[in-house]
Structure formats: structure tokens, C-alpha cells
Amino acid sequence: MSHLKERIEINCLNCNAIVNGKYCSVCGQENIEPKESAWQLIVHFFNDITHFDGKFFSSLKYLMFKPGFLSSEYMRGRRQAYLNPIRFYVFTSFIFFLVVFAFFVNKSAENNFIKFDDGDNTKLTVEQKAKLDSLNNLISSTPTKRNSGEKKGSVSSNEFYFSKFKSKEQYDSLLKIKMINDNYLTKVFTYKRLELKEKYKGNETTLNAALWEKFLHNLPLMFLFSLPFFAIFLKLIYIRQKKYFYVAHTIFAVHLYIFTYIAILLNLGCTRIYERSHLGFLNVLGGFILVYILYYWYKSFRFFYEQGRFKTVIKFFLVFLWLLFILVLLFVLFFFYSFYKM
Fold first, then answer.
1. Are 32 and 44 in contact (CB under 8 A)?
2. Three-state DSSP class for 155?
3. Which of 17, 40, 267, 307 could staple 36 via S-S, CB 3.0–4.6 A?
């Protein structure tokens, strides 16, 4: 509900129907003055995101201290009194990643992604050095032909991480004469590495900073992508309980994610403040929050799915392993997607 002044006129500004009361019975628009200040515009925006008329805080209270309650209420059809879970997730996810990226991400990690060739041969074996010398001689002369039947001695370019491919043309030449026998994925990666080496003029720091930033921007999407896979696994391990339809599992997963985002933010906040103030109780509180996350997930499963302790522990462990697998897989896929889109 808006806090703007109600209009004296009784015609709806949206559809021009007669308004009996505060809202139009035809289109549902509130009959309020159209003029608003900049502050009212900001408040209106925040209200639209969170339903700041009490739903946000009441939903937050139940979410944090009654594991599984909001999901159960949603499944029973009691939804009007609580913030819509999808809207709740979007708002929480936005705040979580905004704060994490702004205050907690260690940007020094951006220097650990890609290294260009530096000519350091000290880490190679004697056999690899011999092959490397032969390969570098070929690179320097850029040969264009070789007996096509002579495959002996061909190697993967992975063995020559320190070799100096100067261009795509040289790499293509080595592939053509079968001195290198790279598979499709290795070729794609090598081509992209050579392209980026040229684009960023061999500056590893600039490249890795750009890659790190692009990857971070894809992280919210990565976690969003993991939700349906999480819900599918919940559906499979609770397949005998017919009352839980797929959307119910999805809403349950959404509420778990929202809680985890908030709890991790609190933990990071305690850690950061402890680093500056050295107040011992903050360190203890941070550890307690991590333990509470595990306890909260377990209690959520118990309350929502209404099964015994033993079954809940087993299924909770299986779900944890599955989610870990999905997140690692998506992490790798999104990283290489970010790299490919550079």
C-alpha cells in the first residue's frame, strides 16, 4: 500500500472507471496523487522489492529462527502474510553479492588464473627439455610441411606449457605437420590463450583482472542455475512422498539459499570486525554462525519433510554431497565460459 495522498477525484487515472474506495475495481490501481517526491520514489522502489509493509521483517524473522516454516506455509497455500520467496531471493541475492564483491572478495586471486609463456625450462624433465628444444626449433623456423606419416614423437602442447608459441599461425603449422596432437578442447583453449595474449599484449595482470571480474559477474547466475538441479535431487530422494511436488522442493531450496546468504554475510561481518577490533566474542560468534548453518539445514529438512532423525541425516548428507558436486561443476563451467567470452 502506498503512503501517497489519496485523490479527491473518483475517476481512475489508468482506465477512467469510477472508483469506489481506495482501489479501482476494474484494473486494481490505487487512486492516489500521481505526483511524488524523489524520496517517495526511492521508498516506492524499496517497497516494491521487499513489500516493506511488514511482510519483509516478519518473513525474515520466520526464515532465520523457524527452519522450514516458510516453505511449509507456502505448500499449505498460506502465502499472503509472507514475502514472495522468489522476490525474497532476488533481493537477498542482490544484497549478498553486492556486499561480498564490495568488501570481502580478495582481488589478489585474479593473478592466479592464467600465465603466459615465460621461457622457464627448469621444471621440465631431461626428456621434455629435449622435446622442447626440438619444438622451439620448429617454431623459430615455422615449417610448413613434414612427412605426414611421421607421427612418432608427436606430443600434446600441454607438455610444453613453457614453450613460446608466437601466434596462431605457428600453432596451426605444428598441428598440420602432426608435431602436436592436441584434442579439440585443448585446441580451443590454446587458440583462446594465444588470442588473449595478443589482445592484452602479454600483460598477465590486466588479463587476469578482466577474467576475474567477468567470472565474478557470473557467480549470481551460477548459484541461480544450481537451484533447479538441487530441487530435482530433492524430488528424487523424496519421490515416495507424493504430496511434495517439484515446485515445493524448489521453494524449499530457495528458502535454504536465502538463509545461507544472510548467515554467511553475518559470519563475514563478524570476521571483518574481529580482524580490526580483536574482540574475542566476535570470533566465537562467527564460528557459531557456521555451526548454526548446518543445524538450520538439518532442522529444515526435519520440519518440512517430516521424517525421522536417521532418515533425515542420511538424506541431508546425500543432498550436501550432490549440491557440492553441482556447485563445483558449475564453477568450472562458468569459469571456462567467462574465459571463452573474454
1. no
2. strand
3. 40
pLDDT one digit per residue (tens) for the chain, 342 residues? 555 677 778 888 888 888 888 888 888 888 887 776 666 666 666 666 555 556 888 899 999 999 999 999 998 888 888 888 998 999 899 999 988 888 766 554 555 566 655 544 455 455 555 555 655 555 555 444 444 444 444 545 544 443 456 667 777 777 776 677 777 777 777 777 777 777 777 677 777 777 788 888 888 889 999 999 999 999 999 998 888 889 999 999 999 999 999 999 999 988 888 888 888 888 889 889 999 999 999 999 999 999 999 999 999 999 999 999 999 999 888 888 887 777
* pTM more than 0.85: no
Residues 338, 211 contacting (CB under 8 angstroms): yes
The dihedrals phi and psi of 180, each to the nearest 5 degrees, come to -125, 135
CA dist 244 to 67, 75, 214, 308, 311, Å?
A: 17, 8, 38, 17, 17
- Record the cell numbers describing residue 283, joined without a space: 570470533
Q: Cα–Cα distance between 187 and 246 in angstroms, integer?
A: 41
